[in-house]
């Protein structure tokens, strides 16, 4: 099984606690625990608002990177990647 990525924010999900939960408490395989709880999205937002939210965590994302992303590079990558995620597909 390959890596699972949240279909809302793109976060890699590797540990059980990172997966969102359905109404019945079962693990949701598509969305992370930050984006999806109790069968609903935690935030009602647009794709661009989600990108802005994710950019707040750029320093954490960059901490182990050999070539860290600038804010502009990260935004451009997310603007290409996010439309492929289930939540943002048109």
Summarize the SSE layout with pairings.
Blueprint: E1 4-5, E2 12-13, E3 19-21, E4 27-32, E5 36-37, E6 40-41, H1 47-55, H2 58-62, H3 71-81
Antiparallel strand pairs: 1-2, 3-4, 5-6
Helix pairs in contact: 1-3
- Low-pLDDT runs: none
Instruction: Summarize the amount of helix as a percent range.
Output: 25-40%
Number of contiguous helices: 3
Number of strands: 6
Globular, elongated, flat, extended or rod-shaped: what is the shape? globular
Largest sheet, spatial ordering of strands: 1-2
What about the largest sheet?
Answer: 2 strands, antiparallel
Mean pLDDT: 95
Structural class: alpha+beta
Terminal Cα span: 27 Å
Oligomer: single chain
| Strand/helix succession | EEEEEEHHH
Radius of gyration: 13 Å
> Can you tell me the number of structural domains?
2
Descriptive terms for the model:
Transcriptional regulator, two-stranded antiparallel sheet, Zn_ribbon_dom_put, alpha+beta, 2 domains, 90 residues, globular
